Amino acid sequence: MTEYKPQIIAFCCANCASSAAKVAEGMKKTLPDNVKIIQVPCTGRIEILHLLKPFEEGVDGVYVAGCQTDSCQYISGIAKAAKRVAEVKKILEGLEVEPERIDVFNLSAGTGRRFADVALDMTKRVAELGPISPK
């Protein structure tokens, strides 16, 4: 029997989170191969539909990695993303899907280790939940 490996989508801002990814790479911190990164100009541009679509397509978990609330280049991008993630958690609950499958993380540009840890933590969390069972 093969070990369950959840598929995860990570929406990362082009500023802080992407810089943290580069720092992680420089530190030789590799991300799990089950995490697919989608770079976005700002996490505030991610709509609820963008967060739900991966689940519709069979992905097991989604997270948003953006700036610290006080260092967003677009002022309130990560705050908007956090509100939308909270809404998606409610939608998932209504669909009887664990809301822990989606989350939002604040990263600063120099936090390469944290960037890698977030990917590992989300992989572990979603793996413990198991595949999404059809209702």
Keywords:
135 residues; single chain; 41% helix; alpha/beta; globular; Rossmann fold; four-stranded parallel β-sheet
Account of the 3D structure:
The structure is a single chain. The protein has a single domain (8-128), classed as Rossmann fold (3-Layer(aba) Sandwich), CATH 3.40.50. A four-stranded parallel sheet has the order 2-1-3-4, sandwiched between helices. It is an alpha/beta fold and 135 residues long. The mean pLDDT is 86. The chain contains four helices and four strands. The chain starts with 7 loop residues before the first strand and ends in a 6-residue tail after the last helix. The chain has helices at 16-26, 48-56, 77-94, 112-129, and strands at residues 8-13, 35-40, 61-66, 102-106.
Summarize the structure.
With 135 residues, this protein is of the alpha/beta class.
